[in-house]
Design goal:
It is a multi-pass membrane protein. The chain has 21 helices and no strands. The chain is mostly helical. The two termini are 15 Å apart.
């Protein structure tokens, strides 16, 4: 039915044009902000600990207690999970574009508000910060299903994978910018208030102005989002939504004539015929959906869940690795602002070497190798490297093998980004029918965030030493790093198995994939 719709054919066959790139930037800005906001908090947690939790006269500067540290980072994840489900559903109900503006405004407002967190006591500042970070996460969550769906519905079928991957790859730049902003701010403050290290003079190592440092870093996230608001509002609703969901053929043809700069006629009867076909009206909980897309949804949700457990558990080792290689010296040897600089420098190097190349490898190869191959291959290599780190774990802890450990560790994340981290985002935007596309993407993404919560917190507790005397302050003993790595290897292996449930979508039009274009169904 939909195959005959000229609007969709025109989009599928369109040459790569300027509007494709503007769409990537507009949709990608959400991801940029997302990565920036979730990432910048890890740069300033040490500083927050110093400002609000330093005990006078102690040998080391203060750190956030485990429950506060978990709350500050975890609350944004919980907000994201809720936002993915809610805005995913809303994006199919009200249209991609209308909801898209709401999520962006929410992100801008909450990024600024979290930098203005106030209160008399440490507790009240942290509570206000957590409150606004939850709603920031909620807005960010809405960006996942909407950005992916908008990009996939705007793209042509030949290079659709690369376009959606490019939107996702903006995350890498968000991370990088987070690091760079922190470096610039901390350097500026360090020059202005040249503070001594904590050992030399505990009180003077934390100039009162350092409270501005984290606030500036956190609030900067609002700027890129605010800049794209205007462009987001000018972007027309996607033709697939207008024609196949809102059933307004005329509007779809008008919008896309502007975008593609060609004349398109409105095919009213075809749209009506399409909408009367019972095969195009089944809901999410219907038997028909289960029969056609049930396994697909299981595949996309479980793969994303498993991947994020592994992907977000990386935070466990980062601190240890940095300190071990000597990139980040012991906290008492630095002033508060210098510490922000050192952490930001280390994170920026990781983003440059480990994160960004993987994303762009995906952009380059996804329409050549296909989604399925990249996801399977990525999970395979992640499994191999996790086991290679875990089994001779003692060997890697020795001083002379540190660099080897870092290389292996970076490779794991290179193959996450040139692998399932990108493909789990792309597939759900392609294989579900237009009227459920944003909802199903939201469900898959929310499963991923649930995995992130397990990875970031479950493994934080699990990786603690089995010996109660060696755990981090405030944590109960766990199963140790070696066993945690073995578990993560197993999780990646499961990811390989569940990848077998997802279809290959390379080079096919969206309607072909969802069965929305079968001329006459054999009923």
């Amino acid at each position: 039915m939909a195959r005959e719709l000229g609007v969709l054919n025109a989009l599928d066959g369109a040459k790569t044009q300027w509007y494709h790139f503007t769409a990537i930037v507009i949709a990608g800005m959400g991801f940029f902000t997302d990565a920036y906001d979730l990432f910048c908090i890890s740069l300033v947690t040490k500083l927050l600990g110093r400002i609000y939790y330093t005990v006078e006269g102690s040998a080391k500067p203060g750190t956030l207690p485990p429950n506060v540290a978990d709350a500050v980072t975890g609350v944004a994840f919980c907000g994201t999970l809720a936002g993915q489900l809610f805005f995913g559903w809303l994006g199919d109900k009200l249209g991609r574009k209308r909801v898209y503006g709401i999520t962006l405004l929410l992100m801008v407002f909450c990024a600024v508000a979290s930098g203005l967190s106030f209160g008399h006591s440490a507790k009240s500042v942290m509570a206000t910060l957590c409150f606004f970070r939850f709603w920031l996460g909620f807005g960010i969550g809405g960006d996942y299903p909407l950005s992916a769906t908008i990009m996939s519905e705007y793209a042509n079928k030949k290079t659709r994978g690369a376009f959606i991957a490019a939107v996702f790859a903006m995350q890498g730049f968000g991370n990088l910018t987070g690091g760079i902003v922190a470096i610039i701010v901390s350097t500026a403050f360090d020059h202005a208030y040249n503070a001594p290290s904590y050992e030399v003079d505990a009180a003077a190592s934390l100039p009162s102005q350092s409270d501005y440092v984290w606030r500036i870093i956190v609030m900067f996230g609002a700027i890129p989002a605010a800049l794209t608001y205007y462009w987001r509002m000018k972007m027309p609703e996607t033709a697939r939504y207008t024609a196949l969901v809102a059933k307004n053929a005329k509007q779809a043809a008008q919008d896309m004539s502007k975008v593609l700069q060609v004349e398109l006629e409105a095919e009213v009867e075809k749209t009506e015929r399409y909408s009367q076909d019972p095969g195009n009206s089944f809901g999410l909980f219907s038997k028909e959906f289960r029969k056609r897309h049930g396994l697909h949804l299981v595949g996309t949700t479980v793969c994303w869940f498993l991947l994020d457990i592994a992907f977000y558990s990386q935070n466990l080792f980062q601190k240890d690795i940095f300190s071990a290689i000597g990139w980040i010296p012991a906290s008492q040897t630095m002033s508060a602002i210098e510490e922000v600089f050192k952490i930001a420098r280390a994170q920026t190097l990781i983003a440059l070497c480990g994160l960004i190349p993987g994303y762009w490898f995906t952009v380059a190869f996804i329409d050549i190798l296909g989604r399925f191959t990249i996801q399977l291959m990525g999970f395979f290599f992640m499994t191999v490297f996790m086991f290679a780190l875990a089994i001779p774990y003692h060997h890697w802890t020795l001083k002379e093998n540190r660099i080897g450990f870092l290389v292996m560790y970076s490779l794991t994340f290179f193959f996450a980004n040139f692998g399932p981290n990108a493909t789990t985002f792309i597939l759900p935007a392609e294989i579900f029918p237009a009227r459920l596309r944003s909802t199903c993407h939201g469900i898959s993404a929310a499963a991923g965030k649930a995995g992130a919560i397990v990875g970031a917190f479950g493994f934080l507790y699990a990786a603690q030493s089995t010996d109660p005397t060696k755990t981090d302050a405030g944590y109960p003993p766990g199963i140790g790093v070696k066993n945690s790595l073995l578990m993560l290897g197993g999780i990646n292996f499961l990811g390989m198995l569940f990848t077998l449930l997802v279809p290959e979508t390379k080079g096919k039009s969206l309607e072909e994939l969802t069965g929305e274009n079968e001329e006459e169904r054999s009923s």
